[in-house]
Every structure is written in C-alpha cells, then in structure tokens.
Amino acid sequence: MSEFYYSRYPNVLERDRMRFNLLWVFLLGLVVVLPTHAQVERGKAPPDALGIDKDKKEVRVSDYRGKVVVLTFWASWCGQCLKELPILESVQRKGGKERIQIVAINSDKERSDYLAMRRRMRDFTMAMTEDRADRSIADQYGVTGYPHMVMVDKQGLVAFTHRGYSENSLGRIVDEINVLLEE
Question: How many alpha carbons fall within 13 Å on the CB side of residue 173?
C-alpha cells in the first residue's frame, strides 16, 4: 500500500506490521518444531540396522560387508514398489548372493499387510525385513516417499541413492550396480 494510505490510516500500518511479525514468528516456530529426516550421505557409512527378518533376527548392513548391498524401502500400498521388487529380485538372482545382496525393508503400518505380501513373494531370494513399529529405520535413512533405494558398496559406504521408481531410471540403476560389482 502507498505511504498516503498509511499516513491517512496509521492504525492500519501498525496492524499490518503486527501481522507480518506474527507470520515470521509462526514460520520460525515451524522450522524448530517440524521433525527433520536424517539423510544418508554418499561416501559415508549408512545406519547399520535394516529391520527384522522372517525369523525375527535383526538384519544389518555390516552382515554383508564385502558385497554390494541394495536397500529398498517399500510398502504394500505402493504400486511403484510392487513394480520395482520383482526387478530387484531378478538382479539378486543374476548377480548371485555371493556378490550382491538386495534387502527390501517394509514400512507398512499394519503387519498383516506386510505378511500378506511376504506370502505372495515367498519364492523371492532377496532378504526381506520389517521396519520397527516407529519407522525409525526409514527415518534414519531419510525416507520420505516410496520406493526409496540406497546402494552400498563393498566397503560398506553409500554409493548411490534413488527416490521413486520409473522404467526410465532402470538402465541407470543397473549401470550403477554393475559399476559397484566391478570395483
């Protein structure tokens, strides 16, 4: 508004300043209060915990040191995840368990949904785990959407990350896995 308006109506100027200041206080409060998601960084070790397997055993990244490890966070309601999992299963079979380990970490809220999907994928050779009830493993990896993939090299360091899935990205993902296998 123009200076003329504010000079004619000084109370409006004071009211607008107060609204502006309240807006800033509110936005600053959001920054402080909103939870933050951790992020895994390329070249650094990822969090070790990967959830619980079907035998109720804790699975860890360090269990697979010396292998390429591909982690994918998924949920039964995620259509893209259900497209990605069979492809990763194929990668697991072709690459061989001695060289590569795929770990699919489920983040379903309802355990029954996860168990139903496990039954449908009973012939899969990849490791399948279940995140903790508080989804703390997904949080440690900075998962904000599904699927979420993290590739770990043979030394146990994060090499690549991918959020989402599309058939267009499949070639790049396979190339990255091949680079890690050749190292």
Answer: 22
